[in-house]
Design goal:
Layout (H helix, E strand, L loop, with lengths): L11 E4 L10 E7 L3 H17 L3 E7 L4 H12 L6 E5 L12 E2 L3 H7 L8 H7 E2 L2 E2 L2 E2 L1 E10 H6 L15 H15 L2 E4 L6 H12 L16 H17 L9 H9 L3 E7 L3 H7 L3 E5 L16 E4 L1 E6 L6 H16 L1 H5 L4 E2 L2 H4 L2 H4 L14 E2 L14 H13 L4 H17 L5
Parallel strand pairs: 2-3, 2-4, 10-11, 13-16
Antiparallel strand pairs: 1-3, 4-14, 5-14, 6-7, 8-14, 9-11, 9-12, 9-13, 9-15
Helix pairs in contact: 7-8, 7-15, 8-15, 8-16, 15-16
Pfam family, one: SBP_bac_8
InterPro entries: Bact_solute-bd_prot1 (IPR050490), SBP (IPR006059)
Keywords: Sugar transport, Transport
Length: 430
């Protein structure tokens, strides 16, 4: 598989047409939003697929992550001139109006390709199905996890003989461990950022550990439990204000830098920084997000954690046919079969056969937090929720202010609820 330089910007062509493809060959147009290490790895996989299918003219393009990508994809789908297949965060599925901006996967093609529900976690597969039709095929789950510095934790007596972190459960035990780590590092015990959407990820993790709900099933009203919401926010404030084991003002880049340099023993973040720390040769490993509120974990002992999934979807095309969709399904099947290669970048494969394979289980630390996918907490279904959405950004601002100490938990919750009500009152754009 070849490496190419990742081209930034809208619609930068990543994959080239298969060399020597015969005149009139079928074409596969694929859009994604993967940059950095993810982007390079995706290029390699696209190239491998193209090499395996010289009968197809494979054209893969990357667009700027977040709102620019979703705006362009929705406009292309609304006009019926969308790519053949594209990446969509699963939590964004309701905003893409399945049946209008997205076409369902033909069931006969899925059956033919062996893409069936038993090969995906039920909780994830169920979110892909709307009105009995499959509108998304999950590639991965990317959960919020906890990184730890193995050298520092060994010196703190927090690892066993194999270098694995001993179980840390409950707010008091966790804060005590981070407090001791802060003394050792001379920096912080735990680092995390309080800008962007990370505070939302942290709050939703904590609130869902308490079994809190946010919206009614039809997303027309708030059902937030104030007591549970404030319990989660109190813990966030405790980290940076009350016990001060974490910084109150920190960008994600700063948190990653402090952990990578050994100035912090623990990091809360998505699992996609694996290759960053491997490249830096930071002594680290990873575990699922800890059980902050005891008694809330799964029977297997895995606590709930915020997550989303990258999925493949079929953006609406006016002239889409079953035969014309076959190359897209072939590509999806290829990616699922090679999802261990994708998982090297940190994401947990959604394809269960991949998670059981010796090659995946040999990935360290990637396979250590795979069970977090079983307790993944996606954003509640709504047109305004999901990764880089109208909900996560204001939520991050409100909860980040609590985390930094500039708002009380009560004020932060009131601000979040007001923002949520405005979104609920706003008609869906499609």
């Amino acid at each position: 598989m070849k490496r190419r330089q990742l081209l930034a910007g809208t619609a930068a062509v990543l994959g080239a047409a298969a060399c020597g493809a015969p005149s009139g060959a079928d074409r596969l147009r694929y859009w994604n939003l993967f940059g950095g290490g993810d982007g390079v790895r995706m290029v390699e996989l696209v190239d491998a697929f193209a090499a395996s299918r010289p009968d197809l003219d494979v054209q893969a393009s990357t667009l700027a992550w977040g709102p620019p990508y979703y705006t362009k994809l929705s406009m292309a789908a609304a006009g019926g001139r969308a790519p053949d297949v594209a990446i969509l965060h699963l939590a964004r599925l309701p905003s893409f109006a399945p049946g209008r901006l997205l076409d369902p996967f033909p069931p006969e093609l899925l059956a033919e390709a062996g893409i069936t529900p038993e090969n995906v976690l039920p909780e994830i597969w169920d979110r892909c199905v709307v009105d009995g039709q499959v509108y998304a095929i999950p590639l991965d789950t990317h959960p919020f996890v906890m990184y730890y510095n193995t050298d520092l934790c060994r010196r703190l007596g927090l690892t066993d003989a194999n270098g694995t972190l001993v179980p840390l459960r409950g707010a008091d035990d966790l804060v005590a461990a981070w407090s001791e780590a802060k003394k050792l590092t001379g920096g912080y015990g735990l680092v995390l950022d309080n800008f962007g959407i990370s505070p939302w990820r942290l709050w939703w993790t904590l609130y869902r550990q308490l079994d809190g709900d946010l919206l009614t099933a039809d997303a027309t009203a708030l059902v937030i439990d104030d007591a549970k919401a404030l319990q989660a926010l109190d813990f966030m404030r405790r980290l940076s204000v009350t016990d001060a084991v974490a910084p109150g003002q920190m960008l994600l880049s700063g948190a990653v830098a402090l952990f990578g340099s050994g100035r912090a023993a623990f990091l809360f973040n998505g699992e996609w920084e694996v290759t960053t720390f491997q490249t830096q040769r930071t002594p680290f490993s990873m575990v699922p997000f800890p059980e902050v509120f005891p008694g809330t974990a799964s029977p297997a002992g895995i606590a709930r954690t915020q997550a989303d999934c990258h999925t493949f979807v079929l953006p609406h095309q006016r002239d889409r046919t079953v035969a014309g969709t076959r190359p897209a399904v072939d590509y999806v099947r290829f990616m699922l079969e090679h999802s261990v290669d994708w998982a090297a970048g940190g994401h947990v494969p959604a394809w269960l056969p991949a998670t059981r394979s010796p090659d995946y289980l040999a990935l360290d630390p990637q396979s250590r937090y795979r069970d977090a996918a079983t307790t993944a907490q996606l954003d509640p279904p709504a047109w305004f929720s999901g990764s880089a959405s109208n909900m996560e950004n204001p939520a991050g601002a409100a909860f980040g202010a609590v985390q930094s100490g500039t708002l009380t938990p009560e004020a932060g919750l009131a601000r979040f609820k007001a923002d949520m009500q405005r979104l609920i009152d706003t008609p869906a754009p499609v």
